[in-house]
Amino acid sequence: MTISASTEAPLDRRALAARLAADIPRGSYVNLGIGQPTTVAEFLPADAEVVLHTENGMLGMGPEARGDDIDDDLVNAGKIHVTEMPGASYFHHADSFAMIRGGHLDVCVLGAFQVSVRGDLANWHTGDVDAIPAVGGAMDLAHGAENVYVMMTLFDRTGAAKLVEECTYPLTGLACVRRVYTDHAVFEIRDTGVAVLETFGCTVAQLQGRLAMPLIPA
Amino acid sequence: MTISASTEAPLDRRALAARLAADIPRGSYVNLGIGQPTTVAEFLPADAEVVLHTENGMLGMGPEARGDDIDDDLVNAGKIHVTEMPGASYFHHADSFAMIRGGHLDVCVLGAFQVSVRGDLANWHTGDVDAIPAVGGAMDLAHGAENVYVMMTLFDRTGAAKLVEECTYPLTGLACVRRVYTDHAVFEIRDTGVAVLETFGCTVAQLQGRLAMPLIPA
Amino acid sequence: MAPVIVETPDEALVGVPDGATVLIGGFGNAGQPFALIDALRRGGARDLVVVNNNAGNGNHGIAALIAAGRVRKVICSFPRQKDSWVFDGLYRAGQIELELVPQGTLAERIRAAGAGIGGFYTPTGVGTLLAEGKEHRTIDGREYVLETALRADLALIKAYRADRAGNLVYRKTARNFGPVMATAATVTVAQVAEIVDVGGIDPESVVTPGIYVDRLVATDLGPEQLAESLVKAEATR
Amino acid sequence: MAPVIVETPDEALVGVPDGATVLIGGFGNAGQPFALIDALRRGGARDLVVVNNNAGNGNHGIAALIAAGRVRKVICSFPRQKDSWVFDGLYRAGQIELELVPQGTLAERIRAAGAGIGGFYTPTGVGTLLAEGKEHRTIDGREYVLETALRADLALIKAYRADRAGNLVYRKTARNFGPVMATAATVTVAQVAEIVDVGGIDPESVVTPGIYVDRLVATDLGPEQLAESLVKAEATR
What we know:
The complex is a heterotetramer, with 2 copies of chain A and 2 copies of chain C. Chain A contains 4 helices and 13 strands. Chain A is α/β, with parallel strands linked by helices. In chain A, the strands form 2 sheets. Chain A has a 10-stranded mixed sheet with strand order 4-3-2-1-5-8-10-11-12-13, with helices on both faces. Chain A has a 3-stranded mixed sheet with strand order 7-6-9, with no helix packed on it. Chain C is an alpha/beta fold.
């Protein structure tokens, strides 16, 4: 079975967020990582009943706060002021990470430097000896849900693929990523290898030309 | 230094409870074990500001409930209906035993079958092969405070001493008991041995005649 | 998913497989989900492993479940009570297994399961029968014993009030094991006195966030109604 | 003992020894006990080990404490931020130590210390740089790494309201590390917006029971007052 591109061009960041949002089942409990993954929230339908978790101690997080809604005691993991949805709850950090580590969330969406064919994730450290390492909740979130989805550009600024045979950056977690949502395609990490679920502005054959691992057309 | 008996006769249960209560510092957080230790509460002065913990999830436990105060949702570790003092708080079982195991209580008072010269405690199991073993919170409470006090008769019904060189009953905890309050004397477990702090209706010499370990007059 | 709200305890207990490990809340009667336990018994699942602080009292609740021959093993801290005759008899007859766990270790093992912790080192039990055969380890000069997470297929708990998002609050010492058990099972069923609309529970006071609750049933039975329901349950067995 | 209620943050921080390990609550500005951190700096204790989620922002709070040369080591999950220049500079110059801990492991290590747990097996970090040299173990088919309890001499936390028994409630995500840190230090100092009489907090809603709080100070500084107090503090250094 072959699949044809579902769009004529690669997805821009917002289109990618919308694409990922469409795959989040109704009523899911979801943690959206800092940065680009945060934008997924904007594309969840109002009736999706998705409950957002923020690792600094809240379920039922609402949109970014504006104006009079800004409350210094209410921030998300990115330290951005947010709001509270009806049915929210607050809990302390140990309870919040118990929720993550215990696998209670349905979906975690994370950014990445690299993802390997086995679902290894590298997203916390460039390995640069001069860099000050900082991990935050990344290693916890990497194991925090049945469905860990990565959202990233498929290639870095130099054109090198970020979906790789083996991660060269320091790892965040082993075999933890289920799907990889990129501007060029959506990939699923399977026991049998990397499957392409959908392409954007390219064919699987074209992707295969730029990626090192064999791709399984879904 | 020698000490003389502070009473002419051994203490009865209530007098022993009163004697122990007098040693609980003002403002202490205290867990009183099931059974005889529970009676210590009756002898705490009203202004002692002692806060009682019950391991089924409460700080600020009040006296036993009577009449209209009985609430099926409010019981102590012995499953007796109790009341709530101002400033009380409720928490779940894992948090309650975290409080115990973390050593946050000032005093735990427990009953015992035997206490050894090193402060080993046996209070959960007679070792009888026909007995159905039941431990409850005893092993947690044995390590639950800097000051674990035992309250017991010094001799069992056969006249055998319960303060012993080595416990013959199965242990609840190793080297955990600080003081032993009995009808005949108050003992302190020290690195150097067993000290007698006070006697009731007997002399240290008389006690020494009935106990196997050397006694240190305090 | 927000919890499924069902009308009766029996609907809440549909599909419990034989051999399931079941966490059951409560310390004495406080917090014990009698309506759910009765429904579990009526459901007919066998070879259950029951985790509770005790091993049943009198002839009702867990004792009735045991008497009905549904329980293969009890994991608890304190089976022996003056009215635990049902368990006592079967245990002495070698017809039911017992795993005895110190109460704080029981709570912590359940918490560990819910928190994704595989095992932990506790000082409780060191040097005792209950630590025999378990790994010991000295950390910072103190001796500990290794205990592992206790996960379950099903948790039956009783809370006081729920909102439709599944957030729970409890009442007084009836809280006990409920909040940790809710986190440690594949399916958590909560029996509550009332279910209010979303917004009806202060977010600062939620004890069990809705993420942990799968099925919810409102069942505000007083002691008399409870006795009546038990009689009816017996009649239909 | 019920907590000692003091009038000023400086009284609350009397007697901090050099070399102390200090847990400091907060995630970003939310829940960060700025008044206590400033008092710690004014108190002059040196060679401190500071445990916080971050390593200071801008020139205030923990950053000011670090800038004053009081901190030997930072234990945190996320030192690098756009305004963490004080820490960044000293770290690059080799003048401050860093122990990097995944955020959930940090919270759990602190909880373990408060709960009398010596160590625990977590899946977080397995196969990564941060687990190198640590014991690994497979339990029920899953791989875990051993992490140990993180105890401290002092905890500085910010809550919203206290009663005179030391019971605390927090506000929204300012709760974060406060409740676990309060349990894990020899001395816990809480900065709160207000102190009410005993009975003024619902026992069902208490987040930190008073047993964990040693010193309490009410300090409801708005941003302007805070800035002013900082300027004064700088002037007296």
